[in-house]
Each structure stands twice: as structure tokens, then as C-alpha cells.
Amino acid sequence: MALTGGMFASGHTTPRLGIDLAGGTSITLKAKADQGSAVNKANMDTAVEIMNRRVNGLGVSEAEVQTQGTDNIIVNIPRGTNSKEAQQQVGTTAKLYFRPVLASEPSGAAASPSPSGSPSAGSSPKPGSSSSPSASSSQKASSSSSTSPTSSATTQGRAVTDALKAGSSPSPSATPTGGPSPKPTPSASGGTDTAKLQAAYTALDCSNQDDRAKAGNNAKPGDPTIACGKVGKGYYKYLLGPAGVDGTEVKKAQAIFDTQGASGWQVQMTFNSTGAKKFADITGELAKNQAPQNEFGIVLDGEVVSSPYVSQAITGGQAEISGSFTQQEAQSLANMLSYGALPLSFQEQSVTTVTAALGGQQLHAGLLAGAIGLALVVLYLVVYYRGLSLVAMASLVVSAILTYVIMSLLGPAIHFALNLPAVCGAIVAIGITADSFIVYFERIRDEIREGRSLRPAVERAWPRARRTVLVSDFVSFLAAAVLFIVTVGKVQGFAFTLGLTTVLDVVVVFLFTKPLMTLLARRKFFGNGHKWSGLDPKSLGGKPPLRRTRRPAGPAAGPVDPKEA
């Protein structure tokens, strides 16, 4: 009663359904080696673990992530989840780098006429990102955004060329020289690679989706590269220096809402000791430069997600990324950063959607199979045990109610979801539960065959039946536990349900079936052995009733038969 009341009080009156019953999305991903990583069992297992953490971080429950073959991963996402977002999360490698910005400017339709002149302290801020240390740090970077990369702010021709040749962030002494061009100009000493990179930057149109996808492809962390980033409704293109900090050095990332300022949703990062030192060094160097070379680009999978500028070194190992994020965007970025980069790249092979209608048909088929199995068990009990079948059916009903209530409560508690294999486990459990009743009934019948009346037969049969039931259920539970541990995916649903119903079988037999038999033994219908009770001594071939007699005292009594009742 307490469990049933808890179910109604919680509002979860039906079990949660898995993807095969409620519908959902199934994604097949094919692994491919990435920058020397081999497609092996260790890397595949690592990828499965990371994907599991990512989808769980989205609040997805009963999502299944498992390997198939040697190079495929199957991700099953239940209906009611943002499958598009989860689809992006599971396959994203999340390669994060912090790169110094050498040059940036609006791209495509967002580009505006380039006025000439030198940058000034009063340049208008670009809507986008800022970076700040934790509140506990004594130093604080500028809370406003980086200056707009117009021609006056990005005329870094000489400085950029020197930075590219040096293979690091621009020299602190480099200052803009003015001029009409918003991009770095190649120099003779820049080399062929520098000229190619500058040419690629000049030709890059970030408003074009194909250009955005190809920008910075196969760029190594230690080399300069180009990239695109979305700012507001438009796009900016960036020329970036070698990576100063790797995303693997981010210890923790979480989305927070800035209640004190106007930044809105932010991503707060905590670096490990190595990353904290690198971050302090690079922000210290960037703070000496003029815009836009005082910015660092936060590059996630080749895309600049934020380009905050730095006014002073950020120490303390903590920083915040802000940039007009929505809650979903901030949580998505923090989720990927927290759970690390996948060791392999994945190519989406197929996306299959299971509709709720198909799931409903499968559920109907499963319930029909369960009803048929239950009907056959009841029919056997009625034919063979007659009146005792009422006890068995009442026990089955109690067991079914307990199973239903617990499954409903386990949905919100541990994200348990009922799938087809779990339904199969429940159907198998019908036979296991009925077997326990049969063991007890047969022990009672054996006692009646020995000539005992029902009341003592019920009590004498219970110890022997109890041992048998416990041993039988222990073996079933052990098999379910081993199956749950060594298997993955939907088979675990079968094992979990089988183990749960086995435990409930012990509870029902001990706390319901045995007390009920004790009560019924006092009723004339059962106690007198009515022919329809299933306990008729004549039909069972019982001996004459055993009666206790007084033995004569003394030697005349003779030896006592040890088998005498």
C-alpha cells in the first residue's frame, strides 16, 4: 500500500517506455582514425564511455550507446529528447584550442566598407565574447568585448607576417601601422606557407557554408590557421596563431548564469595546473598587444566560438567564456568541454527514427504475449490444483501489482525504462513465480498423503518448501545478475526485470502466499478436503488420518518405532 501511495503521490503512474516501445532515434556512427589514433577496442570503449556521459549530461535517460562490430557505434535516443542536439553531441570530437588572434574582420554579407586610419582607444566593441578570471582572482580582464575588427583595428600587415614567421603569438612591441587593407600582406621573407595562409584568409568567405566547413581543415595545433566564427547574425573570419592552450587541460566546465552583470549565460572553465600556467602566460602576452592581437580565439572543432580580448594576465586557473549564449548553447559547450574529446573521428552512417505508432504495436504484441502466457499458467493451475489455483492467482496478481508499481517508481528514480526485452523478462517471471507456488502446494499435498490434516500439513510443509524456493530463486537471481553485468544495451533490460521479479517472488511467497494458506486452512472448504479444493485426501491417495495415542508405560510397551508420528 505504501508503494502504491508513493506512486500516486509522485505522479508517475505508468512505467517509462524504451525506444523500441515509445519510439525514438537510432544513430549509427562509423569510426575512423584521427591524427594517428588507431581504431581499436580501447579507443572504441573510451568513445562509448564519453558519448554515454554526453547524452546523460543532456538529461537523456535510457539512451543506449554500444559498439557494433569493430568500428561502429550505435546510439539509441528515446522519444521526447532533443535528438538533433544529442546527434551533434555524440559525434563531435570536441577538439578545443586557445589560439592568439592575428587578424579578424567581418566576412561575406557582414563585411562593411573599410575606412582608413589608425585604431583608437574609442573603437566600438564587437558583439561577442569576453574573458574573465574567477571572482576570487585579484586580477580581472576587461568585461566588455573585443574591438571591432575594421580596417583600422586589423591593419596588422607587418606584425602578422612577423608572427606567422615566428610561429607564435605576435610580439608585444608590434603595433598597427595603418593603411587601407584589412588583411595581412605577404612578405618575401614570409615563405610559401605564410603566403598561402594569407591568401586563404583573403579568399575565405565565412558566409558560405562550404567555406566555413573547410576552413582550417587538418590544421595542426602548432601551426597557424584560419577559421570562422559567428558573431550575432553575421560571421567573422580569423587568422589565428599556433595553439597556446589545449582543451584537454580544461579540468572542468559548467554553464552558469551571470546574475550580477549583463553577460547572461556563460561557460566557466577551470584549468589543471599545466593549463593554468599556459593560460596565464598567453593572456599576459596578449594583454601587451593592440586590437585585434590582444584577443585569443577559443576554437572548438575548427570554429571560433568566442574571441575575447585580454587587458591583463588571467591567473588563478579559472576563466569564463561569455558571448550572448543561450542557455542551451552554454550547456552544450560546457558539456562537450567537461567530458573531453573523442579519441576517434566518427562519420554518421544512418539515422533511423522509430515512430510511436510502431512502438505501440510492439508494446501491444508484448502485452498480448504476456496475457497468453498468464492465461496458460492459470489454466494449468485450475485444472491441476482446482481450489488452490485461487491462492496462486491471488499471489500472481499481488506480484504483478508490485512489479508495476516498482517499475513506475524506478523510472524517475534511476531512469529505468521498459523495453521489449524487459517485457520478455516479466513474461518469463510468470513461470518462475508460479513454480514457487507449485513447490509449496506439492509439499502440502505430500503431508496430506501421509495422513495429516490441512492445518499441520501447511505448517510442516513450509520449512521444506521455503528452502527449495530460496535455492531456486537464488539461482535465477544469480543468472540475472551475471547477465546484467556482462551484457550491454537492451539485454540488460531483460536481466534487470528478471532479477527484480525474482526478488518480488520471494517477498510474495513469504509475506502473502504462506499467510494466506494459514488462513484458508481454517476454512471448512479447504480444511475438510473438499473434492474441489485440490486437497482431497482420497483423490491424493492419502493414508488414514494420523492420530496421537497414548503408549502403555513400562517394558510392555516394547520398542518405539522412530518413524511413528
TrEMBL record:
GO terms of molecular function: protein-transporting ATPase activity
Task: List, alphabetically, the GO terms of the cellular component aspect.
Answer: plasma membrane
Keywords, A to Z?
Answer: Cell membrane, Membrane, Protein transport, Translocation, Transmembrane, Transmembrane helix, Transport
Give the main localization category.
membrane
UniProt-annotated stretches for the region Disordered: 105-193, 535-565
| Locations listed in the record | Cell membrane
Which residues fall in a compositionally biased region of kind Low complexity? 105-155, 165-178
- What are the residue boundaries of the Protein translocase subunit SecDF P1 domain, all occurrences included? 44-101
Q: Kindly give the InterPro entries that the UniProt entry links to this protein.
A: SecD (IPR005791), SecD/SecF_arch_bac (IPR022813), SecD/SecF_CS (IPR022646), SecD_1st (IPR048631), SecD_SecF_C (IPR048634), SecD_SecF_C_bact (IPR055344), SecDF_P1_head (IPR054384)
Regions annotated as coiled coil: none
Q: How is this protein positioned relative to the membrane?
A: Multi-pass membrane protein
Sum up the protein's function in the record's words: Part of the Sec protein translocase complex. Interacts with the SecYEG preprotein conducting channel. SecDF uses the proton motive force (PMF) to complete protein translocation after the ATP-dependent function of SecA.
- In Swiss-Prot or TrEMBL terms, this protein is called Protein translocase subunit SecD
Q: What is the species of this protein? A: Streptomyces griseofuscus
Q: Which gene encodes it?
A: secD
